[in-house]
Design goal:
Structural class: mainly alpha
Distance between the termini: 46 Å
Number of helices: 7
Helix content: 25-40%
Largest sheet: 3 strands, mixed
Length: about 300
């Protein structure tokens, strides 16, 4: 796939002028990267609007005050991620599922935008849906992007439909438009996004499973769970594999092992850049590596005020 970086300009509609703040970005980023599947206690409502872009109303110095339509849909995706898992009583959602969702949304956005670029090619249709030069306007790009993001978000977070529809409506588009005119920006956005979604429904992630994203590989930990503060290495069956920890009385669970065989987004295959495995334990190589690491650590200056 060849392409150029997509950089749609910011929208000029008053409804689209919402602030990015440091707290907003950090909160959403943490939610997208949360990895421990331990049940929590907080319960948040599923979002019904993505218009409240900040929790505090404060802006970080130098923050973008008129974000592009792509940034706004990315913010909406982050809100949906937060809403789903916190409404279910979890502090964070699984990083693997969150990363896949964000990739799908931005894949759909890119494929829609690519139709209005002179040389970019989409991931599903290549350049087959490229629009003529006269149609490559900012308004058409933003409309196609919005309908693509809207459809992708509805597929991934159907419980947030009210907020997702309101988001599209705030950008001046009709969320009830299901049969747009062929080759219109709305049609391009929906057509490219649907192709991405159809492909990803069969990528091995088991998004449509019951429950969604449930394991399809039959994975089971090789080592029994152990209390984090009383870990006993002598009871570990296989030191090369994961040992679930019991933290505060709750046992960690494995996270989407089927993603190891899922069709990747940027790689040709999941194991394309797998790094060599560490030395086996116990072994002479492992003992030697531990000795080297211990020696390096001992050589460090304990005084943090002294710069080497």
């Amino acid at each position: 796939m060849s392409h150029r970086p997509a950089a749609p300009a910011s929208t000029t509609t008053p409804a689209a002028r919402t602030a990015l703040t440091r707290r907003r970005v950090l909160t959403a980023s943490v939610a997208a990267a949360g990895a421990l599947a331990l049940p929590g206690t907080a319960a948040w409502a599923v979002p019904t609007s993505f218009e409240a872009e900040t929790r505090t109303g404060r802006r970080a110095p130098g923050a973008v005050t008129d974000p592009s339509v792509v940034i706004r849909w990315n913010q909406a995706a982050m809100d949906a991620i937060l809403g789903r898992y916190q409404a279910a009583g979890n502090r964070f959602g699984p990083a693997t599922v969150n990363a896949r969702a964000l990739a799908i949304i931005h894949n759909a956005i890119y494929d829609a935008w690519a139709c209005y670029d002179r040389c970019a090619v989409g991931t599903r249709f290549g350049g087959a849906l490229r629009r003529p030069r006269s149609e490559r306007t900012l308004d058409n790009k933003n409309e196609a992007i919005s309908y693509a993001a809207h459809l992708a978000l509805l597929d991934l977070y159907p419980e947030c439909k009210v907020a997702i529809d309101n988001m599209l409506r705030s950008l001046g588009h009709d969320p009830e438009l299901v049969n747009p005119r062929r080759d219109s920006p709305a049609w391009i956005g929906r057509r490219t996004a649907q192709a991405v979604l159809d492909y990803r429904h069969g990528d091995g992630a088991n998004q449509l499973g019951a429950p969604a994203y449930s394991d399809t590989t039959g994975y089971q930990p090789r080592n029994a769970p152990q209390v984090a503060g009383a870990f006993d290495p002598s009871t570990v069956t296989d030191p090369a594999h994961w040992t679930p920890l019991i933290v505060g009385g709750r046992t960690q669970r494995y996270l989407t092992p089927q993603f190891a065989v899922m069709k990747p987004f940027a790689l040709s295959r999941p194991d394309q850049f797998t790094v060599p495995a560490p030395p086996a334990y116990p072994s002479v190589r492992m003992a030697s590596a531990v000795d080297v690491l211990g020696g390096d650590a001992a050589a460090l200056d304990p005084d943090p005020s002294v710069a080497s």
